[in-house]
Amino acid sequence: MRASSVRAWSFVHTWSSLISTLFMLLLCLTGLPLIFHHEIDELFGAGDAPAAIAGQAPAPADRIAGNALRDHPGKAIQYIGWDQHEPDKVFVILNAAADAAPNDATVTLYDAIGGGKLGPSGSAFMQVMLRLHVDLYAGLPGKLFLGAMGLLLVVAIVSGVVLYWPFTRRMAFGTVRAGRARRVAWLDLHNLLGIVTVAWLTVVGLTGAINTLAEPLIGVWKAETLSRMIAGSRPGPAPGRPASLDTIVARAREAAPGMVPGFIAFPGTPFATPQHFGVFLRGTAPLTARLLQPVLLDAGTGAVADSRRLPWYLTALLVSQPLHFGDYGGLPMKVIWALLDLVSIVVLGSGLYLWWVRRRRPVPALHTARVQAA
Amino acid sequence: MSAGRHPAGWRAVFGVPLLVGLATLTGLLAALLHEGAGWVVSWLALSLPLALIGWHVAKASRGRAYGILADRGRTPASRSRVPRRT
């Protein structure tokens, strides 16, 4: 590798990292509690549902919806959802109106068997962590900005892998020259920690960047597919009295055999139309449980209007989510995710430190590379 | 330093990182595709980078302890000397 190309790659690595480091540190730190949001919410959030007795029939969705509206006067239901990992709870998302902003929504848990209120989902602390992690309290521009930072991280990773060669080619893998000057030891640690976590960080960075595009992608899907889905069906008479939720869920299940309901989107929400309910069903196998099949049903009659597979870009979005969250391999995977996150924090911090000391003195290993290249 | 005598082939430099990267991707996919054995595969595969870090950092800190003993008698300047760009 020529000395001039080492310098060029160093420039790319330094500046792509420096620009994104502050935000990456924020993402790593806020991401740490988010890995365990399920466990933390359980500690501080709503209590558990009374232990379900086997064979007990779940409460009708209509009863849960009625309870939720009674518990939250003046609010409208946006979504009712079932989490595959919490079969004894039902999520009800309420807001000022069906089309109100998602960040203003309240999520309340209900007992899937008894139908009674369990309490709010999540804690204020986790909400702050989530907003800082997802959009910096700046809505869609904040998300897209963090997505751009994620792409800069990928640039930093690629240039870092290229630089790994001139900086380590004269040493056995994993050598940490702990007896040498502090910056030499930190350079070796930066190289070791960075290179063994490179695949993980690339996957988490890329899937995170994909997640920032969720809003625009759903917008594209609405414009393209949703309008085509309802084009074939004549809107029924204005729904004076909406169809029963249980009828709607039953008809949606008939339209998507072998699948179970994931959530109901109420008319007027981004996942439905003003005249239709959207029922999103999922599979039961590990991978198909991540994928959703939308069924649109007339809000007044409850008749199935249409059902189509999700387009590839929403499938990609749904598959990328577990790969970012690390929530698909039990508690051991979450612990590993957290440790890899901590390693990334050390890589970011040591990179910052190396840049700081190099401002005064060149990194010694670069000298080695230049001599070899000559 | 003996480290300087290692061959500079790409396999010596990128061999272990490539294996770790492949193990990571295998682990990430295994848990996604299979809920039982896939989980165990992912735990083992994703622990590999952590184990390597632990191993090499422990080795370095042990080496450092020996190194300080071996360095006794030398001047501090010769111990911390670092080649500099001229």
Automatic annotation (TrEMBL), chain A:
Q: What superkingdom does the record give?
A: Bacteria
InterPro entries found in the cross-reference section: PepSY-ass_TM
Q: What is this protein called?
A: PepSY domain-containing protein
* Keywords recorded for this protein, A-Z: Membrane, Transmembrane, Transmembrane helix
**Pfam families for the chain:** PepSY_TM
Q: Which residues cross the membrane?
A: 12-36, 144-165, 186-210, 335-356
Matching entries from PANTHER family are given as: BLL7967 PROTEIN (PTHR34219:SF3), IRON-REGULATED INNER MEMBRANE PROTEIN-RELATED (PTHR34219)
